[in-house]
Design brief:
Structural class: alpha+beta
Shape: globular
Number of domains: 1
Oligomer: single chain
Number of helices: 3
Length: 177
């Protein structure tokens, strides 16, 4: 049986973790995601529908490029649950309107389409190490992640991943044909 004090400690720990995660989101949405570096460990890993995980610098650069193309891009988190002391599960909802050029390394620039992208709710796991986020893992679901975002813009997942963002375009979006 869980003692009342243990339950309070767990709730306090979850509340602290959730507050930390929620403090990260405005930094990511600010257009200056480099400010988020203080929330992410040196060994930080991000997984999504990328063929390989992104390290902290790659993740922050991706967020910067995304924000340039989708100035109103937002991350909404809900339904937080703790798993032990260092894992927080949540549901991630994200989206925005493609009003700027999307320029990703190795991919032909995608001019603004005006398309509003709303990705489906995606389970996400935040892992902590010594009170800092060391991993964000977004569960791959149909229509989610980078693959879902690109499909909204008429682009297939166009690249292979080798080291730092080596890519080739398979199908250009209709807007640049």
């Amino acid at each position: 049986m869980i003692e009342p004090q243990e339950m309070t400690d767990t709730q306090d720990r979850l509340s602290t973790r959730v507050d930390f995660i929620l403090a990260l989101m405005p930094e990511m949405e600010s257009g200056h995601p480099d400010r988020a570096v203080r929330y992410l460990s040196d060994d930080f890993i991000y997984t999504d529908t990328f063929p390989e995980p992104l390290n902290r610098d790659q993740y922050l650069e991706f967020q910067r490029l995304l924000k340039q193309a989708f100035p109103d891009w937002s991350h909404h988190l809900r339904d937080f649950e703790a798993e032990g002391e260092d894992i927080v599960h949540a549901i991630l909802e994200r989206g925005g309107t493609h009003t700027g050029e999307l320029v990703l390394p190795g991919l032909q620039p995608i001019p603004p389409t005006g398309v509003t992208v709303q990705l489906p709710p995606e389970p996400v796991i935040f892992s902590f190490f010594e009170d800092i986020i060391d991993k964000i893992q977004v569960e791959e679901i149909p229509g989610g992640g980078l693959e879902g975002l690109l499909s909204h813009l008429g682009v297939e997942m166009p690249w292979t991943y080798s080291g730092l963002w080596t890519r080739r375009l398979i199908k250009p979006p209709a807007a640049i044909l």
